[in-house]
Specification:
globular, five-stranded antiparallel sheet, mainly beta
């Protein structure tokens, strides 16, 4: 028997939510977090094909917001000058009412890679893209 897929079971990103330090980011446009896996090359005697040893991972991502306030820069504006970085935690969730289940993840030890101090262009609606890295994550729920 062939497996089939119902088109309504495809998750719609419109239902995604992001919270930064427990405050919902209503202006979120997109959010992405990736784990990049790190490997060390292992050259095995007698084998011409390089093998690999997993040595850890790095977490990094990007969030994009419609520019309606200075929320992102307010998190780090003082830290840029003082060197005392704030504790930042994300919680992201994706819960489409057409899908049975949801995905939710908590991300801790978040550090922004850059901070847009000011940007504008005549006739353009503003959005901000913020690259970040993180120290840990924990899935709160996944879709079966």
């Amino acid at each position: 028997m062939a497996n089939t897929m119902n088109a309504n079971s495809v998750i719609l990103g419109t239902y995604g939510k992001l919270y930064i330090n427990n405050v919902r980011v209503a202006e979120i446009k997109s959010f992405e977090l990736k784990a990049s896996l790190n490997y060390e090359d292992i050259n095995v005697n007698g084998n011409l094909i390089t093998q690999y040893k997993y040595t850890g991972a790095t977490l990094a991502g990007t969030l994009v917001v419609h520019k309606v306030n200075s929320f992102n820069i307010n998190l780090v504006k003082d830290a840029i000058k003082t060197g005392v970085m704030p504790d930042i935690k994300f919680m992201g969730e994706l819960k489409d009412p057409n899908v049975n289940g949801d995905e939710a993840i908590e991300v801790s030890d978040v550090m922004f890679d850059e901070a847009m101090l000011l940007s504008f262009a005549n006739g353009e609606v503003r959005e901000e893209s913020v690259a970040f890295r993180a120290g840990d994550y924990n899935y709160l729920s996944t879709i079966a």
